[in-house]
Amino acid sequence: MKLLLKIYVFLIFVVAIIAGLSRNISPSKTGNKYPLTSAIISIQPFDGMAQKDVLYIQKKLQKICPNTEIKATIPLPSSCLNFNKTRYRADSLLKFLNKKTPAGHLIIGLTNKDISTTKNGIVDWGVMGLGYCPGQSCIASTYRLSKTNTLNQLYKVAIHELGHTQGLPHCPEKTCFMRDAKGKNPTDEEIEFCFNCKAFLIKNGWVLQ
Ligand SMILES: [Zn+2]
Ligand SMILES: [Zn+2]
Fold first, then answer.
1. What is the distance in A from the centroid of ligand 1 to the CA of 200?
2. Residues with beta carbon < 5 A to ion ligand 2?
3. Which CATH architecture group holds 31-203?
4. pLDDT for 97-147, tens place per residue?
């Protein structure tokens, strides 16, 4: 009898975990306030980004969201520097971008400087990009990208971070744009959004083939 009770409790526990996990990945429960059907994507270049590179990203982003705009280039705020002034804090930059962004807009910052956040217990962990999940702002940096395939990789980082703004978490699929970089740069292995991520984004108004 005791054993049966233990099995019963264990089964309830397993069902609860599965229910919890599926809630995290369910495309129908995104809580996303800024689906691309109603949002404008503002591209915010920071000093050092070449205008032609910004235009390239805009052209690519227009294919998934026709309403994009490029804001005037601005300096990176010195208040967002890390403790030894070697990198800019990506989380502080997201807060900075958020303050500048009215309702109905998503904003993506583009920089060629190194950016960092706190991850896996490491206080100053260098990243290619960061985005609220969900939220209005994200940022992508060329600093950690390949010197020969920079723009293609920057676009992949940009749509990964914009995917986060929609509430899309990381994806275990190796070829999916939502793959977790885990401190490396796997963007050349990423080919497209996988079936599940694509379905999630299409529900949020993304134009994806
Ligand atoms: Zn991510
Ligand atoms: Zn995926």
1. 16
2. 171, 173, 176, 178, 194, 197
3. 3-Layer(aba) Sandwich (3.40)
4. 999 999 999 999 999 999 999 998 999 999 999 999 999 999 999 999 999
CA distances to 75, 84, 111, 160 from 138, in Å:
17, 23, 11, 10
Q: What is the pTM of this model?
A: 0.85
Report which bound ligand comes closest to the CA of 119: 1
Whether 168 contacts 201, CB under 8 Å: yes
What strand order describes the sheet that includes 129-131?
68-70, 40-45, 105-111, 137-141, 129-131
Query: Do the beta carbons of residue 108 and residue 158 sit within 8 Å?
Result: yes
